[in-house]
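F.,

This is the one I mentioned.
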């Protein structure tokens, strides 16, 4: 069993930055993929970024490429999402998730990010 807890959300002006953290308790195996998703009001949840825990390789949604960076701290069992050049359309609840094999099985409770224009 894996528990995920996000933190770091808040209110920021357009052009600003935030760093989200996702602390994992339980065993994160090297085969896991860690991902960030977001859901804006009235919209479906969408993929933001992912990292393969063992290799460190990453993948990003086109809408955040060049602005967001996913990273990890193995010793702390924590995944980060550095968000720069934020836009009002980045406003959403951001979720951290862990994928053991084929699907994201474990989810955090989410953290609100609000970007004002």
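My design for it:
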């Amino acid at each position: 069993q894996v528990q995920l807890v996000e933190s770091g959300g808040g209110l920021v002006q357009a052009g600003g930055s935030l760093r989200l953290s996702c602390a994992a308790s339980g065993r994160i195996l090297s085969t896991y993929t860690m991902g960030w998703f977001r859901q804006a009001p009235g919209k479906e949840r969408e993929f933001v970024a992912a990292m393969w825990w063992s290799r460190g390789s990453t993948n990003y949604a086109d809408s955040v490429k060049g602005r967001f960076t996913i990273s990890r701290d193995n010793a702390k069992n924590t995944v980060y999402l550095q968000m720069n050049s934020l836009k009002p359309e980045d406003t959403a609840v951001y979720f951290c998730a862990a994928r053991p094999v084929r699907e994201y099985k474990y989810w955090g409770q989410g953290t609100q990010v609000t970007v004002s224009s």
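The chain has a mean pLDDT of 94.

Talk soon.
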